[in-house]
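Handout, section B. The chain below has 269 residues.
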Amino acid sequence: MSCAPQPEASDGPSASAGSTCAKGELATRTSGKLTIATDEPAYEPWFKDGDPAGGKGFESAVAYAVAERLGYGKDKVAWQTVPFNKAFAPGEKTFDFDINQVSVSAERKRAVDFSSGYYDVRQAVVALKGSKAAKAKSIADLKDVKLGAQVGTTSLDHIDDVVKPKQAAAVYGKNDQAKSALKNGQVGAIVVDLPTAFYITGAEITDATIVGQFENQGGTPEQFGLVLDKGSALTPCVSRAVDALREDGTLAKLEQQWLSDAADAPVLK
């Protein structure tokens, strides 16, 4: 599948794989530019100081590394604000790819394309220190706790499908709202991805603690992927870029630079 218009001669069997993703010449939304989307506000540790274009924070750094692999320098990248849920909802997209902690799932793949995974993630439980939820040692210990999470997330799926609490989960449009509910005592604990949990407890709600993290479900890691339009000609090119960044150690280096060590959180079983 070609990512840019190619001469007829290059479409035959003799065409090399690299010729289909000519650097800086992809069929992007705006010729010569790569449009990348994320939500607002842009949270740490994924983005630094709420600025996706700054190149700091794990996802900002990954986005620019992918862009570079595709042949687009920082001056050729345009950022766009797209709400989390809208990024993977059905319908034509206004971006080339979206990066916003979107987990790859079979259900979402029916509406959009995903690149190869750029980060293996686990979900974690955050509660205020000294609370009943903070004392939980197992999934069973959380069944009586009022839990909250952002709408449309695998965090919410873990509450509904893994914990299966006696009370329905509190659902919020943004993680900021879930964090406020935790601080105000409206919920006993919230579920977020593990790096976000480390940031919340280390910088935002310092009287909160990470209760623990969930094991991967079904034996396969949950992964964040870049979101593209369904059937996008860019998908194989973007996946190839992500694969190259994983193989040459760039993703591991950026993960070490920007994200906390998952080994510090106990596993809830």
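Note. Confidence is low (pLDDT under 50) at residues 1-19. Compare this with the example in section A.
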